[in-house]
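Narrative of accomplishments. A recurring question from our advisory board has been how the design workflow behaves on a single, concrete structure rather than in aggregate. To address it, we present the structure tokens for one chain from the evaluation set, followed by the sequence designed for it. No filtering or post-editing was applied between the two.
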């Protein structure tokens, strides 16, 4: 959990965390949910021990589930700690967001309270963030209205260290979802009891209906009843206040709609695939202001003993916050932490998505340019004199005018059966402005190392951030600017002809060379550009290597004085 700079580690943790959260939604009872919460800490968040302390009706907290140690479970399960003792612990703890942490240096004052614990004494830590056996880390769980549902206690991180920012955020998000799962488990238990009474206690029908009405109306999550069968199939018959608030629409207005009228067009197929009995789906519903909200739908059929199904009961849970956290975690895994640009893995993924392994037919040799049939059309730019000035210039190599374009422009038919509906990426083969393709601009900063050596890495980081901003400001919204690593950047720009790509490189280079002010000091860097053209039949690595080679050819062709910057 502590190798936070490695995207693949974050993705692996995210996958385990996602699976643990998914398991919370499959638990069938409150007891199963509580044990699943504890197991998820051990399996998904890299702690060896976890306990779930649940608030009882009298306010005290009972150890309802333990995971990771049979000995700890035998020692603690079913034992109760007073509410006052728990509130003292939460008040004493250092705030890590919503988490509470009490270091071993302060935990000794709690040894005499009545909260069940398994902590033992141990030697002093060998380094500042080493986990001590007496360290206490707690994650409170709350309902949607802020009521304390319980507290998750964790111990023994597998890496032996106190969790960093990544681990804390993951534990905090998991506790948030665990609180929702426990609330939903309680709600489902109430709803199931109401449904059983409706089916089996015909003599107590009115009492059962009243119980159902209250559970429906006052449920903290959105609830809806829809028609089953007939001309009005799918129409919303009844909604509770929570759903009305969720969608920003009054109940009278909602009765004119069905869920298919409210769902985001991209999620309609997901909604239609969701089965009636036990079906669940995560999709977006339209609010009154035109925005869309991520929700989780869970269906149950309310049946009549004699007439069969009567209506569909749908539980609507707001998962916007969870989706936002998932997107944030995914963004952090695919973007550079310093500049905020897409990282190397994301760049290769975007480039690979535009390529396939089926190249166009090889053109006639008479039409091949000096680049031959290598498949890449390249160009290079130096830091000085772009477009023919001193010390720089550019060159473009590749197929002649009767190459790819004739194959995919209508002169020659596409092979029978096509290419699985893939829209091929084809490089331009002439200077004709109508021939456009996907340009890959490889940028390497000139003079950056000297700035790092003279002024330190903090100054170099500030330069990289500013260069990233200038590059992003110089391209279109649908173009990609990525940081490949170090002082290397790559720009993906689709729909450009050769002249457009050359002009873009000039503009970006001119945007980079003005002085950059860092801590009252003006520094300068230059930039060398190499241009390659992506085309199907090539890999992302081949395209990037081609652009990289073109850039270094131009960089080496100029004197060191012409490349001086900063």
């Amino acid at each position: 959990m502590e190798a936070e700079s490695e995207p693949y580690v974050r993705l692996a943790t995210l996958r385990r965390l996602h699976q643990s959260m998914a398991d919370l939604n499959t638990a069938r009872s409150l007891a199963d949910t509580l044990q699943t919460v504890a197991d998820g800490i051990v399996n998904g968040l890299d702690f060896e021990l976890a306990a779930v302390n649940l608030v009882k009706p009298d306010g005290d907290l009972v150890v309802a589930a333990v995971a990771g140690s049979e000995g700890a479970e035998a020692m603690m399960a079913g034992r109760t700690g007073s509410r006052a003792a728990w509130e003292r612990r939460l008040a004493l703890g250092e705030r890590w967001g919503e988490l509470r942490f009490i270091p071993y240096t302060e935990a000794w004052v709690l040894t005499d309270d009545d909260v069940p614990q398994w902590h033992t004494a141990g030697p002093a830590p060998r380094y500042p963030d080493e986990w001590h056996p007496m360290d206490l880390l707690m994650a409170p769980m709350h309902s949607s209205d802020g009521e304390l549902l319980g507290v998750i206690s964790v111990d023994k991180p597998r890496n032996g260290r106190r969790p960093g920012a990544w681990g804390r955020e993951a534990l905090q998000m998991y506790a948030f979802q665990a609180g929702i799962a426990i609330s939903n488990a309680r709600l489902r238990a109430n709803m199931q009891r109401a449904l059983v009474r409706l089916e089996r206690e015909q003599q107590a029908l009115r009492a059962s209906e009243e119980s159902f009405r209250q559970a429906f109306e006052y449920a903290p999550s959105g609830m809806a009843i829809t028609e089953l069968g007939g001309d009005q199939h799918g129409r919303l018959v009844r909604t509770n206040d929570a759903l009305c608030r969720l969608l920003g629409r009054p109940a009278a207005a909602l009765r004119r709609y069905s869920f298919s009228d409210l769902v985001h067009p991209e999620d309609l197929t997901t909604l239609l695939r969701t089965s009636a009995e036990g079906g669940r789906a995560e999709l977006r519903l339209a609010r009154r202001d035109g925005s869309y909200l991520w929700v989780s739908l869970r269906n149950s059929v309310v049946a009549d003993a004699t007439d069969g199904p009567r209506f569909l009961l749908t539980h609507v849970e707001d998962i916007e916050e969870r989706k936002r956290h998932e997107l944030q975690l995914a963004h952090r895994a695919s973007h550079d932490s310093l500049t905020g640009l897409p990282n190397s893995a994301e760049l290769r993924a975007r480039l690979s998505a535009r390529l396939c392994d089926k190249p166009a037919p090889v053109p006639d040799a008479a039409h091949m340019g000096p680049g031959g049939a290598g498949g890449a059309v390249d160009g290079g730019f130096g830091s000085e004199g772009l477009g023919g000035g001193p010390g720089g210039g550019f060159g473009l190599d590749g197929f002649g005018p009767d190459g790819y374009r004739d194959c995919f422009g209508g002169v020659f038919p596409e092979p029978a059966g096509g290419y699985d509906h893939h829209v091929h990426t084809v490089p331009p083969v002439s200077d004709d402005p109508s021939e456009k393709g996907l340009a890959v601009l490889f940028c390497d900063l000139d003079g950056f190392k000297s700035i790092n050596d003279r002024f330190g890495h903090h100054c170099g980081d500030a330069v990289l951030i500013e260069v990233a901003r200038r590059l992003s400001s110089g391209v279109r919204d649908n173009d990609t600017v990525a940081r490949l690593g170090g002082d290397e950047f790559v720009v993906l720009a689709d729909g450009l002809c050769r002249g457009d790509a050359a002009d873009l490189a000039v503009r970006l280079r001119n945007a980079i060379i003005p002085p950059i002010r860092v801590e009252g000091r003006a520094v300068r860097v230059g930039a060398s550009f190499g241009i390659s053209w992506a085309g199907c039949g090539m890999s992302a690595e081949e395209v990037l290597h081609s652009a990289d080679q073109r850039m270094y050819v131009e960089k080496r062709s100029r004197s060191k004085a012409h490349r001086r910057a900063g």
